[in-house]
Design goal:
The complex is a heterodimer of chains A (about 150) and B (about 800). With about 150 residues, chain A is α+β, with helices and mostly antiparallel strands. Chain A contains five helices and five strands. Classes of the chains: A alpha+beta (about 150), B alpha+beta (about 800).
């Protein structure tokens, strides 16, 4: 077991983990951060996407020990004092979710996309969220949601 | 400014955003896998690596010494108690169902079949211990090819059968008396076109992997499961395991998509229940994606032999369909019935005088098949819309003109088809005209001609799908006539609380559709209460004790109508209270915008009006009610529809096909759907978008492939490839509104329409692009390789063969034949 120290959604945690433990399993099973979900086992679906030290990562592709000393933001940490983050609000406003399972990862990936490219074209948005699968929406309203946030910050 | 009494804005028709969203966008979700119960054990399942084999020995005891392991079981441990995974649809009286153990006991019949289960303190410990289980298999030949499986002397999938055929189901309009005999049409045909279409195997690929938690309580259990069907699960679990039904509580918490993939009672649900009861402890099983792709049921997997006959003027005279339907290794809940749901839809929107449909259900050593979005109707729509294009080509006729010549005209509704179904309403002309205009069809045809003339290496193709479907499952009597094991009614309760707030209990079980929002809109309008005051309760057999759940685009057109009928009863009860308090006859009261008013009195006049909220409190207090009246406004309704719902529409697709690389790019996709009265246009649009994505994915991207040893070679999302955002275009969607006459809201189902309609539009477009190259079909999914081979033409069969996209290994087609490459 390896001792790690990690900040998740503004709370500091110190835990013993097996070196092989994936960050997503640590979040879900040891911290109870079940808002972040697992959708595949090959890093294709992106449902587990979180922010680690300011960058979006698929938390199934990061070992918990690699996040030692780091700062993680999950979907659960986005809203501040009950106020939704702009991307959360846009997903609601544009009907960009149905079952909602891909949504945490999709929101985290979309935020990262705009961080790197604040005013993307439709094609750039589609390419930017290529690593996140949604089976419900056909992506059209997700694109609209991202466009809405990009437009609001112009 | 004119003084007008304030009327609440109508809720029905409003594009409301969803009340479901808040917890989903903030991660405050209740997915089954999130659950942790005190003392809970975690399960891992050992699965067969063999497609077909006898288990000569199995020993799970090695797992017991592994860290954290509490128990390990094989099929032998549950052989006497596990029963069979249920199948509720014996489509013919002589259908062969060889039985389906949840844990294999003596033989495995497909890769991924469960053979042992480990319970441990953590999931990781359970998974680690699987390697300590010893299993010896004696391989048997796999059974992969549907036609070879039927040959006398073929290896039998199941040793307790005499053939790999489970059933033959037949409909013949000549015999049924609903049309002419097909043999006459075939004999008299001026034009006959015969084609074989392959419906590849697909995997529903809901984003949330299946998960089940079972807590034993006394003699009974509470089961939480990622299911579309908590009510059916309750009944079937009781029947399968002999637990009294009243001791089973089934809960579908947040469920992350289904698309038919969560419509069965699964071996994993049964195994989890067995282990939890054996240990007397709560147990959880959650599948990995790889397990899901391998062991959860698949869809489609049919060979369609289709013959259409016509006169030279284009009048269609007959349709003859023979299906070979791959059941896979076992019959799941409604698996045998899936192709039968398509049987009535091959004639589609056309006036076809003679029709025959024959379907053979066949066992193979592949994953079982069952419902996948559309279930039978996408296959039917594909076949008819593809062969209409082929017929048009044979006749040298414009494909839309051929359709126009044969479709049911709007003034001919209600129309009884050659299948005996009565379509209540429709307007194919209106939807088509709107779609053609949105598409800029004529301009695209002009461009196509130019690009053909100039020899553009990227050719333009235009595809049509004018579809209808039958949904809203279903009239119970019709289901009975098809030998389905249950009915198709739906239940609802409407409860008015003391404060005037409203609780609606429904037996449908949403998993992403937005029913809470849509149903709230309906009830808000009906009772004249604010949208926010309506709470929809579902998905728990303790709070929603009656229902038949969500599939077949039934939730609104059956479940929603049950809600309307219950709300009507509430209004009539409230009328009695209002009449009593206001001291008038109930007939003298008008109910509008949530209040009863004495007819002829001005709104708001003292002593002449009573709101539903006031009536609710008066009923709660019960101080002054009519003699003999129960102090309750609460009402139930169980609605059994008299007919199906028949949404329709026109889908048009324009593709650019690169004849040098085989790449297909959707340039424009237009659909005009007619789903009747719109409750919420936003929700409709979302359903259509997602449906289109799945139908297009069948045309272009997805296929479950088995190698010649029966191994699934598309067992991860690396190889089984649902489209991501850049794979799809932005769709242009619109609607026409021809209200259904079969229900009081005028609504039609919408959940499956996009999937049913879109696949042939895309394939027709690609074939249209490649007609000058002599191409008349490209097998789905139309990968660049298949398209390129089709263009090359010299090796046409290769375009229909398997791909070698998976590590260069020779792979097989969905019908099991090996690609010679």
């Amino acid at each position: 077991m390896t001792k790690i120290s990690i900040t998740v959604d503004d709370v500091n945690y110190s835990d013993e983990v097996e070196p092989r433990t994936l960050l997503v399993h640590y979040l879900r099973e040891q911290l109870g951060k079940v808002g972040t979900v697992v959708g595949c086992d090959t890093s294709n679906c992106g449902a587990c996407t979180v922010e680690l030290d300011g960058q979006s990562v698929k938390s199934c592709t990061v070992l918990a020990v690699q996040a030692d000393g780091g700062t993680v933001t999950t979907i659960e940490g986005l809203a501040v004092n009950g106020e939704l983050a702009p991307m959360q609000q846009a997903f609601h406003d544009k009907h960009a979710l149905q079952c909602g399972y891909c949504t945490p990862g999709m929101i985290m990936a979309s935020r990262d996309l705009l961080k790197n490219n604040p005013h993307p074209s439709e094609a750039e948005i589609r390419e930017g969220i290529e690593g996140n699968l949604c089976r419900c929406t056909g992506y059209q309203n997700i694109v609209r949601a991202v466009q809405a946030v990009a437009g609001a910050t112009s | 400014m004119t003084a007008v009494a304030a009327r609440p804005e109508a809720e029905i028709g409003k594009a409301r955003t969803r009340k479901e969203d808040q917890h989903l966008i903030t991660g405050r979700t209740t997915w089954t896998d999130n659950m942790v119960l005190p003392g809970m054990v975690h399960l891992a399942i050992l699965r067969s690596p063999m497609a077909h084999a006898t288990i000569t020995s199995i020993d799970a005891s090695g797992a017991l010494s592994r860290p954290g392991v509490i128990a390990a079981y094989t099929g032998a441990d549950f052989a006497e108690t596990q029963g069979n995974v249920p199948c509720a649809w014996p489509v013919t009286p002589d259908m062969v169902n060889p039985g389906a153990p949840s844990l294999a006991v003596t033989q495995v019949n497909c890769v991924g079949e469960a053979v042992a289960v480990v319970a441990a303190r953590t999931k990781v410990e359970a998974q680690d211990a699987l390697e300590a289980i010893d299993v010896e298999y004696e391989p048997l030949p796999p059974v992969l090819d549907l036609e070879a499986a039927l040959v006398e002397g073929s290896t039998l999938v199941h040793p307790n059968t005499t053939s790999n055929k489970s059933y033959t189901w037949t409909f013949d309009s000549g015999v049924a008396g609903t049309g002419a005999p097909i043999d006459d049409a075939l004999a008299a045909a001026e034009i006959t076109v015969k084609r074989r279409f392959l419906q590849q195997r697909l995997i529903p690929s809901f984003m949330e992997p299946r998960s089940t938690v079972v807590q034993p309580i006394g003699d009974g259990v509470t089961i939480w499961s990622a299911t579309q069907i908590p009510h059916i699960l309750r009944t079937m679990l009781a029947l399968t395991l002999g637990i009294p039904e009243q001791k089973v509580r089934a809960i579908a918490p947040d469920v992350g998509g289904g698309f038919g993939g969560k419509i069965v009672v699964s071996p994993e649900e049964i195994i989890t229940t067995l282990v939890a009861r054996r240990l007397g402890k709560p147990a959880k099983y959650t599948e990995s994606r790889s397990e899901s792709l391998m062991a959860a049921h698949h869809g489609r997997a049919q060979i369609q032999d289709v013959t259409i006959t016509a006169k030279r003027d284009g009048t269609v005279t007959g349709l003859d369909v023979h299906l070979l339907a791959d059941m896979g290794a076992y019959l799941r809940l409604v698996g045998p019935g899936v192709p039968i749901l398509g049987a009535f839809m091959y004639p589609a929107i056309y006036k076809i005088p003679a029709y025959r449909f024959v379907c053979d259900g066949i066992f193979t050593t592949k994953a079982p098949t069952d419902a996948y979005r559309g279930a039978g109707r996408p296959e039917a729509t594909f076949a008819i819309e593809r062969i209409m294009d082929e017929l048009a080509h044979e006749l040298d006729m414009d494909p839309m003109e051929l359709r126009r010549k044969n479709w049911i005209k709007h003034e001919e509704f209600p129309f009884t088809t050659v299948c005996g179904l009565t379509y209540d309403t429709g307007n194919y002309e209106a939807a088509t005209e709107k779609a053609l205009a949105l598409m800029g069809w004529d301009e695209l045809r002009t461009e196509q001609a130019q690009r053909r003339a100039s020899g553009d290496p990227v050719q333009l193709g235009l595809g049509i799908s004018t579809f209808t479907e039958m949904c809203g499952l279903a009239p119970s009597r019709v289901l009975g006539s098809l030998d389905y094991g249950a009915g198709g009614w739906e239940h609802a309760s409407v409860r008015v609380l003391a404060t005037g707030k409203v609780e609606v209990v429904t037996g449908i079980s949403p998993h992403g559709q937005g029913h809470e929002t849509g149903f709230s809109q309906i009830v808000a309008d009906k009772l004249g209460v604010p949208f926010e005051d309506v709470e929809i309760i579902h998905g728990d057999t303790q709070s929603s004790p009656k229902g038949l759940d969500t599939y077949g685009s039934r939730s609104l057109v059956v479940g929603g109508i049950a809600v309307v009928k219950a709300a009507d009863k509430v209004i009539e009860k409230a009328r009695q209270v209002a009449a009593h308090v206001l001291e008038v006859s109930g007939d003298d009261l008008e109910f509008e915008a949530g209040s009863f008013t004495v007819k002829g009195m001005p709104a708001g006049a003292a002593g002449s009006t009573m709101s539903l909220g006031e009536i609710a409190f008066a009923t709660f207090a019960a101080h002054n009610l009519p003699d003999g009246m129960e102090p309750s406004l609460d009402s139930d309704a169980t609605f059994d529809p008299e007919n199906f719902s028949f949404p329709h529409g026109t889908h048009l697709c324009a593709v650019d096909v690169d004849t040098e690389t085989g790449r297909v790019t959707i340039r424009k996709y237009v659909c005009v759907d007619d789903v009747g009265t719109a409750i919420n246009p936003l929700l409709i649009e979302g359903q259509v978008h997602g449906g289109l994505a799945q139908g297009i994915a069948q045309a272009l991207f997805e296929e479950a492939v088995y190698d010649d040893a029966g191994n699934l070679t598309t067992g991860t999302f690396v190889d089984y490839t649902p489209p991501s955002a850049p794979d799809l275009p932005s769709f242009i969607t619109d609607r026409t509104v021809t209200p259904a006459t079969s229900n009081p809201l005028g609504v039609k189902g919408v959940g499956e329409a996009g999937t049913i309609a879109s696949t042939p539009a895309v394939v027709n477009a690609v074939v249209d692009a490649l007609r000058p190259f002599g191409v008349d079909d490209v097998q789905m999914p139309m990968t660049p390789e298949r398209v390129w081979r089709a263009v090359k033409g010299s090796d046409r069969a290769r375009a229909e063969g398997g791909t070698n996209a998976y590590g260069g290994a020779s792979t097989s087609t969905s019908d099991g034949s090996v690609d010679p490459s």
